[in-house]
Amino acid sequence: MTATRIIEASDENYKEAVKAACELLAAGEVVALPTETVYGLAANALDAASVAKVFSVKERPTFDPLIVHVSTRAELSRVAIVPDGIKHTVEKLLNAFWPGPLTLILPKHPDIPDLVTSGLPTLAVRQSANKIFRAVGKELGQPLAAPSANRFGRISPTSAHAVRQELDGRIPLIVDGGACSEGLESTIIHITAGEKRPTITILRPGPVTKEMLQNFGKIERPKKSRDPGSPCAPGMLESHYAPRTPLILLENADDFRPETGKKYGLLSYTGEPGKGYTGLYPWTIIEALSPGNGKLPEAALRLFHVLRKLDDAGLDCIFAEPVSEVGLGVAVMDRLRRASKQV
Ligand code: TXA
Ligand code: MG
């Protein structure tokens, strides 16, 4: 058991937090840091022993590779190799979306320990838009391997409090940078050169949507694969983002068969009386993704937060309303399907 300290770091006053995080990271420790998507559990990506701690703290199987975060564009060449055939596309994508929630799968640099990529020849890499996260990487002078700061398969944390719920007593430090501004993990893409246009395969939908990517290439969704190590299947085999309470995605109201004496909660899109499934049942609790107005960015931002609230409410089952699968709705539905183990 390690005593877990939380240091608050506002945008203006974060130097002390950055220093404390760097001291621990330099000593081979792991530290929870805010990113714009979800909180990450960071380690020096070039130090296999530190990376091994990330897997053990999260109870993550070593066949599930980590994302590496660079603090500058120049650092990309230390961790990955950009093939000539896609150089131009990569450059355009980075100009458009970095720093930000877009992760690229690229051939790995030999200096990156195999543990980071679970033995794959490719590496997942992004540059976070969060100032605190980037400042830590810069001051440490090393790329940071950082998966979401939750125990394996559980709901990703979007606040320091949620990180504490997940990892209290397992890590020495959580840097509290406030609530994440996106709330969903980064979009993960793989790029292949084409004769006319490159193909962009969206391996994990996220804040950078298909609509935002389609100017850069032909968009594809991956074929499902049975091989857990396959680059076409990030996080696809395990149930992910899952509350402990069973969750059912109610695509059709006719499928709702309540049992008597059970406590049911509703994850509603707007939460407004008379809308969606709010009137379908005397729910013990209703949580709204986007209270009142039904806006997708707000729904994405609140998803993991409200899932945690419903999970803590002592329910027998959580029922979720579907959201429309356009724009950010694709990523929201992806997480809901995984939470309901429907993938
Ligand atoms: O927004 C995010 O991406 C957050 C923050 C902390 O940056 N990180 C995050 O990491 O979501 P994690 O470890 O929870 O999810 C990384 C996903 C996993 O599903 C993993 O399978 C996939 O990325 N991945 C990593 N390396 C890969 C590779 N070489 N090929 C295909 N998928 C890979
Ligand atoms: Mg994760």
Radius of gyration: 20 Å
Q: What would the principal axes of the Cα set say about the shape?
A: globular
- Strand portion, in percent? 15-25%
User: What would you call the structural class?
Assistant: alpha/beta
Question: What number is the mean pLDDT?
Answer: 93
Q: Could you say what the CATH architecture of the domain at 5-72 and 115-176 is?
A: Alpha-Beta Complex
Count of discrete alpha- or pi-helical segments spanning 4 or more residues: 9
| Proportion in helices | 25-40%
Please report the total strand number as a whole number: 15
* Strand and helix order: EHEEHEHHEEHEHEEEHEEEEHEH
CATH topology of the domain at 5-72 and 115-176: DHBP synthase
The first-to-last residue Cα distance is 35 Å
Q: Which molecules other than protein and nucleic acid are bound?
A: threonylcarbamoyladenylate, magnesium ion
Say which CATH homologous superfamily of the domain at 5-72 and 115-176 is assigned.
Answer: DHBP synthase
Low-confidence spans = 226-233
Strand order of the largest sheet: 2-3-7-4-6-5-9-10-11
> What is the class of the domain at 5-72 and 115-176 in the CATH system?
Alpha Beta
Biggest β-sheet description: 9 strands, mixed
